[in-house]
Specification:
Strand 7 and strand 8 form a beta hairpin. It is built from twelve helices and 16 strands. Helix content is about 35%, strand content about 25%. By secondary structure, the protein is α/β, with parallel strands linked by helices. Strands 5-6-8-7-10 form a five-stranded mixed barrel. Strands 11-12-13-16 form a four-stranded parallel beta sheet. The chain has a two-stranded antiparallel sheet with strand order 1-2. Helix 3 runs parallel beside helix 5, helix 6 packs parallel to helix 8 and helix 10 crosses helix 12.
Length: about 450
């Protein structure tokens, strides 16, 4: 009985203690949170409209950036009201400043003036394009528009929402003139991509930008350089650039590119466009497009639509001729050539199965999706064209013709890698080799490549 009473008393005591702790915690947390939120709001000066909380934060940084003796930017605590953002410091500090790739032919700090020029993007105008060809002029005007749109992206999003471009009454005007000496509008491995960029003030209100290049492609790189010399200064809420500037530049290598594979994994046109944008920012000029493989055949051939019927992952994962043509033009305006690759004779499987079902075509490919794959190819799924079937070269000719009608015809990739001789070890191929005096599979491979080249040339 005594033990039971003691237990009841202990339970009651614990209950009272827990209730007391809960009440104390409630008042303490409420008071603490309220107090500290008031303090935080006071420090950050959070603003609200009509009682609704605002996303904007009025914040004054205690830090500033300075250009050190080593010509690099350093962060320091502010000692006065003077403030320089990191972008502003990067623009005005060092030899190459914000340029990427770095200019090859700048002579030193004298090429970049110490002064900055404030302007708004809508006060940037293309005043003249001196050229000898309407196509080149059109490319230059489009490239300027692209550059201007990229400069607009320098404005912070919250600033853009509440700002009318060109609203600064004190902002200056940037006038850009372009001179193109040659009428080349197709980029090759010997294209002159050099340019000269001159920037000078004309009084306090005007900035004159002069771009000179042998070809449009040099001009495009010059416009990219110009955009890199522009920053948004968040202290005065306007764009800035340098004056005066003198840059003579040219690429170090004629081929500067990437390769992309959209056969193993389909890549939408929009994603390809973003990759091209990124290449243009870095002044790359060649995009090798691996367009077919044993996995899939996404390019739509008007001559042989069976290729995508059998080879595309789905009806939504196909590149139409118009899409490809538009993508080639999209790249051209950004100074990039797209080099298509139709892989053969290996890496050719899905898409080539329709031969036996079409009268007179026979087996266009061997080992398609065969297992075990390690025996028949270098990677799954397997597939390799039939070099003994003359219809293979006829089909290749039709596909090549369709591809060259939408791509630049001067540069084309035929594939040719990882030919798996085990896949050709069958009676029809052995007989063909004897009839054509081919001693081994290497001779057969050379035979295929030579006939493939003849098909392209014809």
């Amino acid at each position: 009985m005594i033990r039971r009473r003691c237990c009841s008393l202990k339970a009651a005591t614990i209950t009272i203690l827990l209730v007391f702790i809960a009440i104390f915690s409630f008042f303490y947390v409420t008071h603490f949170t309220s107090f500290h939120m008031d303090q935080i709001s006071a420090v950050l000066n959070l603003s609200a409209d009509h009682g609704e909380p605002s996303d904007s934060v009025k914040y004054t940084s205690p830090w500033t950036w300075t250009c050190g003796d080593d010509q690099t930017c350093h962060r320091e605590l502010r000692k006065s009201n003077d403030y320089m953002s990191m972008d502003n410091c990067s623009l005005t500090c060092g030899q190459d400043r914000v340029l990427w790739p770095k200019s090859r032919n700048t002579l030193g700090l004298d090429n970049f003036g110490p002064e900055t020029f404030d302007f708004d993007v809508e006060n940037m105008e293309l005043t003249d394009v001196e050229e000898n060809n309407d196509k080149v002029k059109d490319l230059a005007e489009k490239a300027f528009s692209i550059m201007k749109e990229n400069v607009k992206k320098l404005y912070p999003m919250d600033f853009v929402k509440n700002y009318d471009y060109g609203g600064h009454c004190n902002s200056g005007t940037v006038e850009v003139s372009i001179k193109i000496e040659c009428d080349d509008h197709v980029i090759t491995l010997i294209t002159d991509e050099s340019y000269t960029l001159k920037i000078n003030r004309d009084g306090n209100r005007f900035l004159l930008v002069q771009l000179i290049g042998k070809t449009f492609f040099g001009i495009r790189h010059g416009l990219e350089t110009l955009s890199q010399l522009i920053i948004f200064d968040d202290e005065v809420n306007t764009l800035k650039t340098l004056s005066p500037v003198l840059i003579n530049d040219s690429p170090a290598f004629p081929y500067r590119g990437l390769m992309i594979d959209s056969a193993r994994n389909f890549i939408p046109i929009g994603s390809l466009e973003r990759m091209i944008d990124g290449m243009s920012y870095n002044k790359l000029n060649m995009l090798h497009w691996h367009l077919s493989d044993s996995n899939s055949f996404p390019f739509f051939s008007r001559t042989y639509p069976q290729m995508t019927h059998y080879g595309a992952y789905s009806k939504k994962e196909i590149y139409t001729p118009n899409q490809v043509r538009n993508l080639v033009e999209y790249a051209l305006v950004r100074g990039i050539k797209i080099i298509p690759e139709l892989d053969a004779p290996a890496h050719a499987g899905n898409g080539w199965q329709w031969g036996p079902e079409t009268e007179g075509y026979g087996n266009l490919a061997f080992c398609v999706n065969e297992e075990p794959w390690k025996k028949f190819c270098g990677q799954p799924p397997c597939g390799q064209l039939n070099p003994a079937n003359p219809k293979v070269y006829e089909v290749l000719g039709g596909i090549y013709s369709d591809m060259l009608s939408v791509f630049d015809p001067d540069l084309f990739h035929m594939g040719g890698d990882e030919v798996w001789f085990e896949c050709w070890k069958n009676q029809s191929v052995q007989t063909f080799m004897k009839e054509n005096n081919l001693n081994d599979f290497m001779d057969l491979r050379v035979y295929f490549q030579n006939n493939g080249k003849l098909v392209i040339i014809s």
